[in-house]
Structure formats: structure tokens, C-alpha cells
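FAQ: What does a ligand-bound record look like?

Like this one, built around flavin mononucleotide:
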Amino acid sequence: MRIGAIQLDNPTVLAPLAGITNLPMRLLAKRAGCALVYTEMVSANGLVYGSAKTCQLLTSSPEERPLAVQLFGGDAELLAEATRRVTAAGADIVDLNFGCAVKKILKSGAGVALMADLAKAEQVLRAVRRATAVPLTIKMRTGWDASGCQALELGRMAQACGVDAVALHPRTARQGFTGRADWSVIERLKKALRIPVIGNGDITCAEDAARMLAQTGCDAVMVGRAAIGNPFIFSQIIDLIQGRAPSAPIPADRFQVMRAYAAATIAHVGESSARYLLRSRLGWFARGLPQASQFRAAIHQLATGDEALRRIDAYEASLVQTLQR
Ligand SMILES: Cc1cc2nc3c(=O)[nH]c(=O)nc-3n(C[C@H](O)[C@H](O)[C@H](O)COP(=O)(O)O)c2cc1C
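The answer part, i.e. the structure of the complex:
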């Protein structure tokens, strides 16, 4: 599939996940074959007013390209200025967040609040489209509540404004993350648009992804929660849709990924901050492995990033011993 001039190698996409899809996480997805990775949502306001923390979210590396940078904001001109800046900083694709339903974001008129005000949404789309020549995507929900399906209207409007692809998480704002994603809305959107549609929501395994592609006709699948600590889901999806049996990772693969994540985190945020991040995050990669709770307890007090790497080695050695018994 193509997004504007960008040809993707396969139809798999890593979803933007605030606080999670930083550079180390995106690199794991990329190495597992994921064709397109998104940054977490980045505040247009924070970028334009030079917040160091916000600007750090743009740290990237050539290995992860093409990279989509997701912006959120409620003001068209501010979003346009942020778009100019991320384009200058090398974003391959700019994405606009029309789906976040967190209260603080809604209050600022951003995220899914824009789906409740389509006149403002159009201003945003036009201003941002004028601000960059790189492909532009949007990510949205079904709409505000079950009374209407603003996704179809916003999708058509986005297409008319020159947006190159849309991603849809088919839950309403009111639903948050409850209930089930209604994939039939993805199918309706795909039928209504000429530009590519990326389907998202409740993909937990390769079989789900293949089912979403077949049922909805969407052009690509976007995986969020199921990719946390589990980049293998991308190679499994690719295997399945290319006619191969998807293989489950063996423990050695999982430890390799854990080490790569720890090393990339240390390189990304520095030794001192890495220990805090790794205390909670390494546990993601141990989910389902024997002795995972002991490992989580052991890393809870990490004093250095290097200690994380030693703890991973010790966990693997102990697991190998247990499995050989
Ligand atoms: C912890 C977390 C953070 C998220 N952050 C973002 C975000 O920054 N931008 C965005 O568009 N969606 C965000 N989402 C929504 C996801 O991108 C995705 O639409 C949703 O999780 C459904 O997909 P899934 O079932 O594959 O997880 C977030 C979801 C979670 C659980």
C-alpha cells in the first residue's frame, strides 16, 4: 500500500501509544517487520513553545523510517506551525490525532473533540495540508457517541482536503476502551473512500489481523496494545498473510528483544533515567514466561541501566536451567 509517495513494504502499522511508542519500542516493531511506525501523540503547543520534553519525543533514527509523527492540538494555526517544524525535522508522514478521548485533551478542543466540531476539523485539515508537502494522515474514532458515525463524514472531508490515508479505531469517544471495536465501521469507511484506510482495534494476534483485512477490505492493520512487549506480532501477521505458518517466539528470541529494548532505552534516555523506565517496562517482555513475577520483583529496584542487562542475563540463565531439569 502507498501513503502519498511512500510505498509500504507490507500492510502492518504500529499504533501511536502515549508513553509507550518511543524510539526503542518503535525499533523493535521495525526489526520485526512492521512497515510503518507512529510516534506517540506530540503536543503542537509544546512543540511550538519549545518544551524540551515534547521535543525529545521527536528523537528518531534512520533505521525506523518511514516515521509518522502524530500531532495533537485544538488550534489550526498552531497545528500548522507544529507541522512545519516536524516536517523540517524529517518526519516522513504527519498524522493528526482526532481520536484521543482523555479529558485533559478534550478540554483543549483536541483529539476526538474535533469530531464533534467538523467545521473546526476542516479548518485544521486545510491549515495543516497547506503547511507540509509530506503525506498527511489522520487517526480517528467512530465518533462522539452511538448517535452518529462522524467517521464517515470526517473521512470524506479529510479526503477532500488532501489527506493521504486515514486510520480508524472504531469505538466512540464515550466508549473509551470498553466494549468491542466495531469493525463494520472500518468496512463502511473503506467503501466510502478512495484513499487508503488503516484498520485498528482489538487485534490481539496474527489471525485477528488477517480477519480484519479480509472482513473490512482495509488496506493495512494498525496494532497497539498487543504489540506492547510483543513485537513478534508483526512478523506473525506478515507470515500469515503471505501464506506461511506464523511461528511463536522461543524464549531466546524474547530475551534477545528484552536486551535490545534495554540497550536502546539506555542509549535513548541515558543510564540514569533508563533505570526508572526499565523498572516497569521490562516486565512487558516477560509476560507469559515462567518466573515472570520473580523477574518483575527483581527489576523493581534497578539501580542502573547496566544492572537491567545483568538481570536479564540472570533470568535467562535461570530459565534455561529450569527448562533443562
Ligand atoms: C496506553 C495507550 C496510549 C495511547 N496513546 C495514543 C496516542 O498517543 N495517539 C493515538 O492516536 N491513540 C492512542 N491510543 C489509542 C491506540 O493507538 C489504539 O487506537 C487503541 O489502543 C486501539 O488499538 P488496539 O486494540 O490495537 O490497542 C493509545 C492507547 C493506549 C492503550
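Follow-up question: can I read anything off the structure? Yes, for example: Residues 251-324 form one domain.
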